From TrEMBL:
PANTHER family (alphabetical): 3-DEOXY-D-MANNO-OCTULOSONIC-ACID TRANSFERASE/TRNA GUANINE-N 7 - -METHYLTRANSFERASE, PENTACOTRIPEPTIDE-REPEAT REGION OF PRORP DOMAIN-CONTAINING PROTEIN
One CC-aspect GO term: tRNA methyltransferase complex
Similarity remark: Belongs to the class I-like SAM-binding methyltransferase superfamily. TrmB family.
Organism: Streptomyces curacoi
Upper lineage: Bacteria, Bacillati, Actinomycetota, Actinomycetes, Kitasatosporales
This protein's name: tRNA (guanine-N(7)-)-methyltransferase
EC numbers for this chain: 2.1.1.33
Amino-acid positions noted as binding S-adenosyl-L-methionine in the UniProt annotation, renumbered to this chain: 41, 66, 93, 116
Keyword tRNA processing on entry: yes
Length: 212
């Protein structure tokens, strides 16, 4: 961790940090200080893309969650330097956050950009985007909420497409039922850049939480 990241964590965690301890349901209006829509981003890494998206859309609150401490410091520092008031940083497991700390129908969107691909077959069960995860996420998302995933690992992209397509709580925004063109609002992420350097193909998926 750099000195700047450590300093940002120390200074800004009390103001903008959320400890994911599974002990309470979070009042999102209180956390952000307003009732603007809230999008959950799982696994923001170093947070550069998160900060860019927050700056481009100040009317949307981003609850950004990761377990990676230097990244948390980096995102807090970026938010501070860019005067972003719409980012809060969660430390811990996104599953616990969803299951224990977010109320039903509390989220206006979900972003999962370049989740760990777990390429080995015996590790596939560790992948985040699975039917059980989608069922949990669906309970926390408002009807009409967008779920946006991206990956540079093609077998995982196929698995995501299959799981989302098969899930009754989600519908594809793409008329042909396939991957989505990368929306302009998603900046290139750090992990994506590394994948592109290796010649990987990036796929975006844009699904909607259906009406109940
Ligand atoms: C491959 S990195 C991608 C980071 C970033 N989105 C990017 O594209 O550069 C995946 C990130 O997800 C985080 N992560 C994995 N599982 C998680 C979980 N259950 N809860 C929160 N973060 C998680 C990891 O710590 C890591 O930072």
């Amino acid at each position: 961790m750099t000195a700047g990241q450590a300093d940002a964590l120390q200074r800004l965690w009390p103001k903008w940090g959320l400890d994911i301890d599974g002990q309470r349901v979070v009042d999102l209006g209180e956390l952000f200080g307003n009732d603007n829509p809230v999008v959950l981003e799982i696994g923001f890494g170093m947070g550069e893309a998160t900060a860019q998206m927050a700056a481009a859309d100040p009317g949307t609150n981003i609850l950004a969650v990761d377990v990676h401490t230097p990244g948390q410091g980096n995102l807090l520092s970026l938010a501070d330097r860019n005067g972003l008031n719409n980012v809060r940083v969660g430390n811990g497991d996104a599953i616990i956050l969803l299951r224990e700390m977010l109320a039903p129908d509390s989220l206006d969107g979900l972003r999962v950009y370049f989740p760990d691909p777990w390429p080995k077959k015996r590790h596939h069960k560790r992948r985040l985007i699975q039917p059980e995860f989608l069922s949990l996420a669906a309970t926390r998302l408002k009807p009409g909420a967008l779920v946006h995933c991206a990956t540079d690992w093609e077998p995982y992209a196929e698995q995501m497409l299959e799981a989302l397509t098969a899930h009754p709580d989600f519908e594809n925004t793409q008329a042909d039922g396939g991957f989505a063109p990368r929306p302009q609002f998603r900046p290139l992420t750090r992990f994506e850049g590394q994948g592109l350097d290796k010649g990987h193909v990036v796929n975006d998926l844009l699904f909607r939480r259906v009406e109940r």
